[in-house]
Amino acid sequence: MSFRTRLFLASVGTAALALAVATVLMSRSMRLSLEQEIENGLINQARLAAETLADQPATTQAAIDALAERLGRLIDARVTFIAPDGTVVGESSRAFDHLPSIDNHGTRPEVIEAQAEGIGRATRYSMTVGTDMMYVAVRLRNPNAPQLAYVRLALPLTGVEEELATVRQLALLAFGVALTAALVLAWGASALLTRRVRAIADVAARYRAGDLRPPERGFGEDEIGTVARALDASARELAHRVAELDADRARMSAILGGMIEGVLVINDLGRLELVNGAARRMLKLQAAPEGRHYLEIVRHPRVAEQIGAALQGTTTDGQELSLSIDPGAVFVARSAPVDPTVRRGAVLVLHDITDLRRADQIRRDFVANISHELR
Asked: Do residues 299 and 289 lie in contact, with contact meaning Cβ atoms separated by under 8 Å?
């Protein structure tokens, strides 16, 4: 999956999640607001009804039920009158002769709360009307009608659900429009960002190939531009360092190539990293020795001992020796460790003293001949 696709999907996913959360929160807030509005209306109406009933003269239970029905029509709500023992003595939604079949309401939450605090609230599913209802009960005191202890008003929440359904439809429409806009914006932003990243990658590829020309366009002033400029500066500095190293390597090669001593540089694994021309001639090397173990090139126990000591950080004295590859040649071998603060390794230097030893032998032979003649 490309960077552009991942960025696009991430942007769209974030936008969709934000819109979905906003829709859910708005729907929940709307529900709470509508329910609070209904509850406040029921409380005000219930208090007004309680104050009206407080002065109600003594009357029959049938008259009380008729009053509940009339009050229910006036305020467009379900009205219930409840006696102190929880018996329903008036119900606007039921006929008078059906009142005995209604369950006792003394254990209803809103009635219990009204008994304790004067007013009670509850929301639950009503088995009587088959929908969610909001109930508000208010305690009242009427000495003339002691059978009236509580007035309870109830409204179905179907209106809330209908309004919420309308809000959800509008929210879904807005969600679709916003998501479409987010898709377009995310695609455009991802395309623009991808072009910038691709341009930076192209410049990096040119730098890798050795083309250090500055980019034709700027990197921008945002975070990506800052990173790109830092990479550009690092690439240029690295190229400068590489050029310096190449120059140092060329000078070192020239120096080593002009030396009459043989020089071998060994890394911490015992493998040759550098062998100059003099060493190649002394050791009669044909193939490139770099990368091979020094024991494959210099087969001499004392040399191996010297290099082993140097790899452990010890500088050894020179030793005069001959190699099996050229028994007539005489060498002095010295080894020393590479600076351990830089890296571990060793340097072996071979001095060819064959001519010196041959001249010394000629001198000794000459002196011996002269001494013999003089005797």
From this structure: no
